[in-house]
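DATA SHEET
Item: assembly model
Revision: 1
Owner: S.N.
Input lines:
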Amino acid sequence: MPFEKYIDEHARRTAQALEMGGTKRLEKQAAHGRLNARQRIDYLFDPGSFLEIGMFARGEPRADWDNTPADGKVCGYGRIQGREAAVVSHDITVKSASSSPINVRKMGQMRRMAIANGLPLVLFNESSGARIPDTMGAIGTGTLGQDPTQFIRMREVPYVAGVLGPAFGTACWFTQLSDFVVMRKDAQLAISSPKVTEIAIRQKIDPMELAGWRMQAEVTGKVDYGVDTDEEAIDLIKKFLSYLPSHHNEAPPKAAVPANADEGAARLLELVPEDRAKVYDMRKVAEAICDPGSLFALKDRFARTAFTALARINGQTVGILGSNPMFKAGAMDPDSCDKACTFFVLCDSFNIPIIILVDTPGFLIGVEGERRKAPGKVINMMSALQMCTVPKFSMVMRKSYGQAYLNMGGTRNTDEMLAWYSADVGFMDPNVGVNVVYGVKREEEPERFEQLKGEIQRDSSAYDLAGIFSAVAVIDPRESRRWLARLLEVHQRRPAKGIGRHLLGGWPTTF
Amino acid sequence: MAQEKVKADITGTVWKIVTQPGQQLAEEETILIMESMKMEIPVLAPVKGTLKELLVKEGQEVSEGQALAIIES
């Protein structure tokens, strides 16, 4: 038969590539309860849609040609729920998925082609970092950095990362660049492995303290969700992508509107207490306003005063930022500002309208806040909000004091600011204001204190806000969804076909 | 069994303790309620587990970051 030896050789090499690092290493991966690099791709993409790029790439040294299938990173294109995407899946069974000049070229190809063709880039990150000993010495290290655009992030397409095992070096760097990160609870994310770090700093290290998921989810805010399995991680990745367009020059996809979508808002007067001393969970308010089942929290374990989520209203993707009185009474701290800022960047970059739900006594002040650069964080958030060109709406529900009133979209910092009839707006908490403005302390002159507090509060009503046309409407809370839905119908940025100016596309990816 | 300290995320006063040592807690279940900025703010269990020890009493003033309880999970 013609070409028989070529056919046989091609089949042999293909089979060798598909064996990855070999049976023993694949069994070890399975014993950890983890999928391997190719199984993750199979779970991600629609059946039959995967087109592999770089299957026959191999490590550069001749000695590595036969033991580095795909050079340890499986790359290619496929469809996720019908939409094209690109994937880089690190293969831990091949030299611990270490990065080399060849596989970094593959990753660069995926990145450039994803951007050029408007494909979300999915990264299954699990790697020991740079390949040792190849990167040792001047030649090894000097070979790095061949691509001067490798770490540019202009948010032309979403980057989403699953941290599915130990993720150091390039796997860690690209996680930092990503818009959405899920992390297995047994995975590790750090500059370098605990073992290398222990050697370098000559101290014993708890791996989970250095690199564990709770540190990343609760302290750094890099991780959106901690998960138990790869399948859970990939399901969340698909869910995140379902809210976003494939690239920044497209409006987000629309979803079907569930039945009874308008019923939740009727519960708002029960969900939010009239008594100002009582707190409530802002997440439940967001749930009541949005399409049932559509609320998808981001970074929920980090900076909990600021609640951020993707959601839908009448099938349209929206971004919800809410100050949550359950945590710190809704007072915004430096981390909340960073979280809000990052969220504005995400929504604005992918043409997602922003809705801000407001009930906050202001920013937390004090020495600790100043040490954590609170003024800079406040202004970063303010700059980012003002640079957003997607439709922005704010709804003042109860308190909104001081600079936080502005940061949360007050007056013209959003396109339309609504106020519930319970809104209470002022420069500072009346309890503090009496002391600052009149020099009267509650414990010294209790009656006069209450009288002056009453005067300050009388001037803080929603109708005063509407009277000067800062609030465009004073509404019954039960009308919240109807108002927001109609505003979304009007605010479609039709001359630009729903695409924003993306002034935040180059904003740093970590705060 | 991992032990974890539940810390105050704001300065205030311990207003009401609504659990007792030995109680099984769900994630985000209320352990105690603080008063701060004239508001009643629940302190929630960060993980599912057993309340091992309460480190504060009702009426006690606490600072941000102060340990309030220990959970075992």
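QC remark: Chain A has a mean pLDDT of 94.
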